[in-house]
Specification:
Blueprint: H1 14-23, E1 29-30, H2 31-38, H3 45-57, E2 61-64, E3 69-72
Antiparallel strand pairs: 1-3, 2-3
């Protein structure tokens, strides 16, 4: 589900859906507001969180757990 393979095409993988999250930047945004704005691109919150994990691991976003703000890293 994270990466595409023979069964899961790129568009349905978490890696393929990170673009929806990146397009909502570059202004910092509350994580709940971000999910609401991109929810149509994901089948579940699990897919959204996996895509957020991918972006965080790639160093493209940062999340402040206290303020719940997602910041896009340049």
């Amino acid at each position: 589900m994270i990466t595409p393979n023979k069964v899961i095409p790129l568009a349905e993988s978490a890696l393929g859906r990170v673009g929806a999250i990146l397009e909502s930047g570059p202004e910092p945004i509350d994580i709940l507001a971000l999910f609401r704005s991109v929810a149509d691109n994901f089948e579940s919150i699990d897919q959204f969180l996996l895509s957020m994990d991918v972006l965080y691991l790639l160093g493209l976003i940062d999340l402040d757990p206290v303020t719940r703000m997602v910041t896009y890293v340049n």
